[in-house]
Each structure stands twice: as structure tokens, then as C-alpha cells.
Amino acid sequence: MSIASHCPRILLLSSSLLTERMILHSSFLPAISEKAELHLWTTSSTNIDVPMDGIRIEPFPAILPFREFPYNYLRRLNEYVWDFRLKPPSRLSMMRNVRDQQHRKRILALKGPARALAVLRQEARTELWLEQLLLGCDRSPEGRLRLSALQPDLLVTTGTFRYEEPAIVAAARRLNIPVLAAITSWDNPSTKNRMVFGHDGYLVWSEQMKRDMHHFFPRSRGGPIYLTGAPQFDVFFQDRYQQERQSFCREQGLDPDRPIVLYAMGSPNLFREVAAIRYLGERVARGELGEVQLLVRPHPIHDDGQELQPLRELGPRVRVQTTRQSGLHVARRSQDERQIREWINTFRHAAVVVNLSSTSAIDGAIFDKPVVNLDFDPEPGQPRQQLVKDLNHQWTHFKPIAESGGMWMVENPAEMVEAVRGYLAHPEWHREKRRTIIEMVCGRVDGRSGERMAEAILDFTKRMVRR
Question: DSSP label at 62?
Fold first, then answer.
């Protein structure tokens, strides 16, 4: 069969609703579905509630954990070696402020040998040796058998740093199936644990992400890196997801004639933000910011339905969204079209966005919404004040954003309220700098990143077929 007539069989992996929406709701599917046979293995296969033409959705194979010894110990050793060799500000900050307090003494004891290996510049050799060891660990017999039966021309992984997908990548490597890694967030190269397994190519958002990949993962220099933009933001440009303000406010219990202040929460695994939200909510409820209302949006992965319950008692001017799929494990959750529509219009109809150093700042900037960013730990007692400062002023991915002048950095709850008040009166402030943030983080944001992702996958598949 000639290359021109070959219809490639492509297997996509998904283990998070945040990346799954990139596959199912962007411009990706329409651009590729008629040119390839698509299969999606996803942890949320039983909960996907959207019409799916041109793609076969199947359950994710069962995955076995690594044994604690020797595998997890050696993985931690490898991570320490790279951290001490490259000295990434983000990961060293997490080590000082969080990990050293969480890890057991036997894990912390690995720092000594890791420092020695780093001084000897043995990080690459250590990781290659570890890769060969881990490739011999069959964590998914089911995945291996299904890969052997399917024989895809290409495997695309969207969860290179998570628990499930590397097991399937290892099986693909053993079967000589080419693997393309989609790096699905701008912070991943500088903050996540090591990608021990090599990949044949990469998809990234921007030139900055490409530079980060080359720096933190030197093996990525050996394969093509495609710049696609951020496909998950394509939905911001699709008319079918745009909702009239009256309709949106009716669903949320909001007054369409009042400006909406949006507090978009990050992961509670790092920071406890409820005290700051309550401080803002009480002042909104008392009318201290004028005729405005507060909408609180929990992180769609970490919404447990309990933490924010007291905020619902503040009155009709304070509303709390429900972003979770109740009763489901995080990995099994998905987002249907209603949830995608709610996400988009929450930012689209907001007047001001408040957050603590999260991707919500980018969501707001794309819609040209002023962004207030917390530069303090809102938890009583401020146990992670230094971590907040590090995140905003040292971490590789967020420091350029926090110090860009494109959002209002606030040092305490009172400043947060004043910043919201200022932006409500002058939404045009910092507009040009917000545009700079978008370009810096996402590259091109035009609703066609999914198409570029499809083109990259097809181009890469052709290269592999020729090979």
C-alpha cells in the first residue's frame, strides 16, 4: 500500500477531563476524522455524553502500580538527580516548601547519592538506565494485548506525567509503535516529575514551551516538536458554545444587570483559598463594591462539594458553581457540552477574574477580562506564604506572567478588594499587557489549534510510515 493511500490508524490516550476536552471539543476531530481511523482509550469512557462521530471510544486498560522497591525509589532518585543538576526554580521551591515535609526519611535519604550523580553529570545516563529497567515492568498486560491486536500506526499520549498513560507508552515502546507526546499545559515541562520514557515527537503550545522542553528534557531535541497553540481554548471561539447573558445568569442564579466578579479557584492540594473568597464575598454581599455579584468557580477536578458550602450562606449576591460529576473518581469524570458551555460563559460574562496563580488567569485574559492575582497565602496563618511568593516570582512558567504588568498583584485581602473595585471602574487597564500574556503562554489563539494538532499528527504519521 502506498503512503498516499494509507489511512493511518491512530490511538489517542486520555486520563483527564482537562485534556479530553482538547480531543473532543476543539477543532481537532473535524480536521482529522475523515483522514484517519481514530481510537480513544479514556478513563472516562462510560461517562462521555457528547455526540462522537469519527472516533471509537473505548475503556482505558487496567493499570498496575509500580512496586515501591525498587521502582519508585529509583524514580525518586532520578528526579532528585535532575533537580540537583538543572536546579529548576519551580521544583526546588516545591521541594523546600512541600515535598521535604511530605516524603518519608528513606526517600529523603536518596538526596545524597543524587547530589553525587548530579556533580558527576550522570543525569542522562541514570535516566536511560532507569528507562530500560521500567520498560521491563509490564504494568498493563491488558494494554499490551490490546495494542498488539489494534496495531496502531501511532500512539498519541496526552498524560505523559500522570499515573496511567506511561504504562501504555511503555507497552507501545516494547512493540515498536511510534509515540507522539502532547504536552498539554504550559507549566508541565518545568514543574512535573520526569518523563522517563522517550517519545518520538512532541506537540507543544508555543516557542516558550519548546524552549522549556529542550532545557528540561534534553532528549526532546532529537525528535520533531510541533507548535500547535492550545487546542483546549478553541471552544472559546465556537459560536455553538456562546450563551446569551440573560440565559447564563438565569442558570447561575445571577442578576444579568449586575457585573459579575469571578473567583476561579486553583487546586486545594496547594492552597486553601476559602478565607479570601469569604472576605470578598462578605463585602460583595454588604454592597461595599456597589451593585455587583460574586460567582465562585471551583477547580473542575478538585470540586468535592463540601469545602464551599458555607459560602452559600452569604446571600443571593454570592453564588457557587458545581463543576464536578458527583460520585465519580476524578479520573472517570468528563465534561459534557453543558459543562463546556458553562466554563466558557463563566469567563465570557465576568467583569473581573480573581485567582491565585492558575491557568484561570489565561482563560480571563483571552476574553480580555482584567485579572487580579493573589500574591499572598489566603489560608489563616499563611503556612505557605513563601510558596506563593516563589510561585509568582521564581517559578519558570508563572514568573513572566506575574511580572508582566498584565494583571494586578495583591498582597492581602484588602488590596484584593481594592483591585477588584479599580478594575470594575477601569476594565481597560493593562489591556495591552494581557494580550502579551496570551501570546507568551499560548502562541496562536485563533480557534484553530486543534486543526494544527491534527495536521501535526498526520504529518508525523507519514514520517513514521516512510521510516
Answer: P
Distance CA 29, CA 20 (A): 12
Cell digits of residue 27: 477543532
Q: How many other C-beta atoms lie within 10 A of the C-beta of residue 447?
A: 17
The grid coordinates of residue 405 equal 504588568
H or E stretch at 149: helix 141-150
Q: What are phi and psi of 260, to 5 degrees?
A: -105, 120
Residue 457: partners with Cβ closer than 8 Å, 6 or more residues away: 10, 32, 36, 154, 156, 180, 203
Residue 361 CB-half CA count within 13 A: 30
Tell me the per-residue pLDDT of 163-195, one tens digit each, with 9 for 90 and over: 999 999 999 999 999 999 999 999 999 999 999
Per-position DSSP letters for 281-345, written without gaps between them: HHHHHTTTTSS-EEEEE--TTT--SSTTGGGGGG-TTEEE---S-TT--GGG----HHHHHHHHH
- Please identify every stretch of the chain with a pLDDT value under 70, giving residue numbers as ranges: 1-5, 49-51, 305, 325-332
Q: Delineate the domains of the chain, giving CATH numbers in brackets.
A: 9-64+139-233+447-466 (3.40.50.2000), 68-134 (no CATH), 240-442 (3.40.50.2000)
Task: Say if residue 70 is preceded by a cis peptide, omega within 30 of 0.
Answer: yes
